[in-house]
TrEMBL record:
Molecular function terms from GO: kinase activity
Classification via Pfam families: FGGY_C, FGGY_N
UniProt keyword annotations, A-Z: Carbohydrate metabolism, Kinase, Transferase, Xylose metabolism
Organism expressing this protein natively: Brachybacterium kimchii
Protein family: Belongs to the FGGY kinase family.
Superkingdom of the organism of origin: Bacteria
Carbohydrate kinase FGGY C-terminal domain segment(s): 286-484
Protein name: FGGY-family carbohydrate kinase
Location of the Carbohydrate kinase FGGY N-terminal domain: 24-249
Length: 551
């Protein structure tokens, strides 16, 4: 988001902000920390951001903790500056706030709340032995990136810090803990740490599986019980504590922001994606497309069998969701677009970035339905959906390929969703999961109709795009914060923090007036993508060899 990515200001916006009636959502994503300030109905009043990148240190993808706190403060400062510029008021008080972040990974803390090992992100795929043992023990697929896989990996590796662990959490949980002093997690994010059981009225970690974990020979000598390490599970709308004075200074070192703000349960980027697209009912789904991609489908019945390609998580209200996750999506596409921007500069052309990207996307839309024999593997990192251990971005074409700008860009768009389409085939065609519509959000959909049509053709499913699709997870987190405030103030029905309460809030107050555009798959486009995907699968051995051969 930029400061221009806001809805038209309501006449009383300055007064609303001054009175502390706005809601703040912050999301720590893979490439940006983003903030969205909204009113009670989710209209965006102002935004802020801070750019950052992960680093590969000691064979682990990580973000330095100093940069987490510096980036958080810089993002809030950018938001506060936008508020002053647009409304001529300081950002002093808030009605509510919530923090979201990339899911999964490993954050281990000691008894004083200090980090015991560098933050290990979802991109790390060296936990295969631990994940395999857990999957066999639990009788369900446990992904490589889940927190419990990282924890067991550390145990199996005899890492020095294991005996001193007092708590584990995710990035959103860590930030929330520093802001409020509470070790809690929204159920959606918690479901990427350890399996959730929905057998009771209050979703929680699966106690039977916790007992199976405790019975593993590998953890027989550790001085802790996993159940004591995990954050408390909350559902959307529950009170997750208040912003402390220390937390307020962490977020706003200038001292302007007041403490005491109500907070929503911290969530993962998958959960905020579901909220940002209103995809929380059975037979609906959403795709969140960024550096990585999530496809989430809310289930109307359990899956027949565990599948390695499918992760079982939950909505922020605790309902079961099948997730297809890919480590790669728009990262390589963004780099190609950057090369074209450099070429324009080389020619002395001062081209607006948004306009350049739109033109290139539109060129891709004009390409052949099968991209003319051009294949793009966007693997900046390994890709578990297609069995690629170590990724190398790769562009390859047949000898008879029609290598044009249009087909090059078409292949880039196809490649952004390639691993996702492979995983979704398993879910929709083999598992026969019902899906009526897939909602999409993320920057790749900003050029009207292009990536949206490619995705519809790839999944053979209608894809809907709302006016807010480009706002992303920070907006979704702001909506969860507004929902929490609504329940706390008694403005919602008396059924409390439930799926129905969240559904009504989104349907009646946020999305009722939003324009939604739905594109159906076309016969030619769907067939073209299927042909392209067939070639993509056939060339996977080349991609795997590239990872083995090129340092």
């Amino acid at each position: 988001m930029t400061h221009d990515d806001v809805t038209a200001p309501r006449p009383d916006a300055a007064d609303l902000i001054s009175r502390g009636r706005a809601h703040l959502g912050i999301e720590l994503g893979s490439t940006r920390i983003k903030a969205a300030l909204v009113d009670d109905a989710g209209a965006v009043l102002a935004t802020g951001s801070f750019a950052w990148e992960n680093t590969l240190a000691d064979d682990s993808w990580t973000y330095p903790m100093d940069e987490v706190w510096e980036g958080l403060a810089a993002c809030f400062a950018d938001l506060a500056d936008a508020v002053r510029t647009r409304f001529d008021v300081p950002l002093t008080r808030l009605a509510s706030l919530g923090v979201s972040a990339m899911m999964h990974g490993y954050i281990a803390l000691d008894a004083d709340g200090e980090l015991l090992a560098p933050f290990r992100t979802w991109r790390n795929t060296y936990t295969s032995d631990a994940a395999s043992l857990l999957s066999e023990t639990f009788g369900q697929n446990i992904p490589l990136r889940w927190s419990v896989s990282h924890l067991l990996h550390a145990v199996l590796g005899g890492e020095e810090h294991v005996g001193r662990i007092a708590a584990i959490t995710t990035l959103s949980g860590l930030v929330h803990r520093r802001l409020t002093g509470r070790s809690v997690l929204g159920v959606g994010d918690a479901s990427g740490m350890f399996p959730i059981s929905s057998a009771s009225d209050a979703p929680d970690y699966d106690h039977e599986l916790l007992e199976r974990f405790a019975a593993l020979d590998a953890v027989a000598d550790v001085p802790w019980d996993l159940a004591d390490l995990l954050p408390e599970v909350l559902v959307a709308g529950q009170d997750a504590g208040t912003l402390t004075e220390e937390g307020a200074r962490l977020l706003d070192p200038s001292g302007t922001l007041e403490a005491g703000v109500l907070t929503a349960p911290p969530e993962g980027d998958a959960g905020t994606g579901m909220v940002a697209t209103q995809a929380i009912a059975p037979r609906t789904g959403n795709v969140s497309a960024g550096t990585s991609a999530f496809a989430m489908v809310v289930l109307e019945r359990p899956l027949a069998t565990p599948r390695e390609e499918i992760d079982m998580v939950t909505t922020p209200s605790g309902d079961p969701v099948a997730m297809i996750h890919t480590n790669n999506c728009t990262g390589d596409l963004d780099q190609w677009l950057g090369v074209f921007a450099q070429f324009a500069q080389l020619l002395g052309q001062d081209v607006d970035t948004e306009d350049l990207y739109a033109r290139l996307f539109e060129a891709g839309a004009a390409g052949d339905a099968d991209a003319g024999g051009v294949l793009s593997f966007n693997y900046l990192s390994g890709e578990h959906q297609t069995g690629v251990a170590s990724g190398r971005p790769l562009l390859v074409r047949t000898q008879q390929a029609s290598f044009t700008l249009e087909n090059l860009m078409r292949a880039q768009l196809h490649g952004a969703f390639g691993a996702l389409a492979a995983g979704m085939e398993v879910l929709l065609e083999e598992e026969k999961v019902g899906l009526d519509v897939m909602y999409a959000h993320g920057g790749i959909f900003r050029t009207k109709g292009v990536a949206q049509q490619v995705l519809a053709d790839a999944l053979r499913t209608p894809v809907a795009l709302g006016a807010s699709a480009g706002e992303g997870g920070a907006w979704g987190m702001a909506l969860l914060a507004a929902h929490t405030a609504q329940l706390a103030e008694g403005k919602a029905a008396s059924d409390g923090a439930t799926t129905e309460a969240l559904r009504r809030f989104l349907a009646d107050e946020v999305f009722a007036s939003q324009e939604v555009t739905t594109l159906e798959p076309t016969d030619a486009g769907a067939q073209g993508y299927a042909d392209w995907l067939r070639g993509y699968r056939a060339a996977l051995p080349v991609e795997r060899l590239a990872g083995e051969s090129i340092d």
